[in-house]
Amino acid sequence: SNPSLLILPGDGIGPEVMAEVRRIIDWYGAKRGLVFDVSEDLVGGCAYDAHGTPLHDDTMAKAQEVDAVLLGAVGGPKYDSLDFSLKPERGLLRLRKEMDLYANLRPAQCFDALADFSSLKTDVVAGLDIMIVRELTSGVYFGEPRGIFEEGNERVGINTQRYTESEIDRVARSAFELAMRRNRKLCSMEKANVMESGVLWREVVTEVGKDYPEVALTHMYADAGAMQLTRWPKQFDVIVTDNLFGDLLSDLAAMLTGSLGMLPSASLGAPMANGRPKALYEPVHGSAPDIAGQGKANPIACILSFAMALRYSFDQGAEADRLEKAVERVLADGLRTADLLGQEGVAPVTTAEMGSAILAALDAS
Ligand code: NAI
Ligand code: MG
């Protein structure tokens, strides 16, 4: 049977960028014989409008069954006054939680044509291609005790950094598997010098590494890692780190390469019966209400998220390369959506024009 894909375009520019991905999916079916069973559903504000909840139970059930979920973006000012539990973001959080997506993959990749767009020197970022694996379901954002408590005559705010061996083990395995598919180089970041959870993290990652002798494993303190990421990011290939450090380091690494409109992500969970990991792919950006409905959105982040799905859920690494090359070609030809333009007098292309150009480049590949 065909691989299955659940598409959740969501709100704002989500449906606009997803429309371009749909054309690419159709292209793969027609031209490469790679046919997907695609179903589409609601998430976020539009799901609230239709069902009174940001994620219907039926949609949740569907997400658990398919080989991969591809999501656009959720949210918008229209929903800002909703109750916390009804907010569009809760739909996304429910997906991540119930699918138990513990490994968040955030690539930082620099297309040569955009190297001068970075705030860093061109030679520091040109050709950059690294991947940060952030643990997503545990750590200080979830650990107990947490809260604001009375202590003596003042209050104290408490969060707890907490990792079990199995939580570290499973995200480390995801990172080693990824390193095996890439350049067999993994750097683990924590602060074992001052944190107990860091000591355990380093111990468990080292232990898991014995199952992956081909991978060159190194360890770095996360603060030093932040410095090295801005000094010479090309020294890294795959980085694995916890939820808090990963939050900071992945945002930092992302901005090495430029626009939010370029950044894909994947969130992976445990292997399913077919051996593929549970998976949700989505652009890093949000619903961009300031440009929604104007044909200005850059579809590349969402298109590259689909490329990640081809690679990590569908074993189509060569086709993922083909799609990324098509994006690279179009950028090299000088096409730019508005977010990729500085002050120079180049006219921006629309969302659909960018999608069409990428399709044409695919056709020529
Ligand atoms: P945002 O990512 O939507 O927008 C930030 C800025 O980047 C805006 O100026 C926007 O126009 C621009 N931008 C974002 N994506 C772009 C693209 N593909 N092409 C061109 N320009 C792009 O973040 P913001 O403004 O903080 O949040 C807006 C809404 O999105 C809020 O409701 C927020 O809660 C939601 N959001 C949803 C996320 C998700 O669905 N995963 C993630 C982040 C925010
Ligand atoms: Mg963040």
UniProtKB/TrEMBL annotation:
Keyword Hydrolase attached: no
Cofactor remark: Binds 1 Mg(2+) or Mn(2+) ion per subunit.
Keyword list, A-Z: Amino-acid biosynthesis, Branched-chain amino acid biosynthesis, Cytoplasm, Leucine biosynthesis, Magnesium, Manganese, Metal-binding, NAD, Oxidoreductase
PROSITE patterns cross-referenced by the UniProt entry: IDH_IMDH
Residue ranges of every copy of the Isopropylmalate dehydrogenase-like domain listed in the record: 4-358
One example GO MF annotation: magnesium ion binding
Important for catalysis (site feature) positions: Y141, K191
Binding-site list for substrate: R96, R106, R134, D223
Keyword Manganese: yes
InterPro entries: IsoCit/isopropylmalate_DH_CS (IPR019818), IsoPropMal-DH-like_dom (IPR024084), Isopropylmalate_DH (IPR004429)
GO process annotations (BP): L-leucine biosynthetic process
Main location: cytoplasm
EC number: 1.1.1.85
Gene Ontology cellular component terms for the protein in this record: cytosol
Binding site for NAD(+): 76-89, 286-298
Record's subunit section: Homodimer.
Function of the protein: Catalyzes the oxidation of 3-carboxy-2-hydroxy-4-methylpentanoate (3-isopropylmalate) to 3-carboxy-4-methyl-2-oxopentanoate. The product decarboxylates to 4-methyl-2 oxopentanoate.
HAMAP family: LeuB_type1 (MF_01033)
UniProt protein name: 3-isopropylmalate dehydrogenase
Native source organism of the sequence: Salipiger marinus
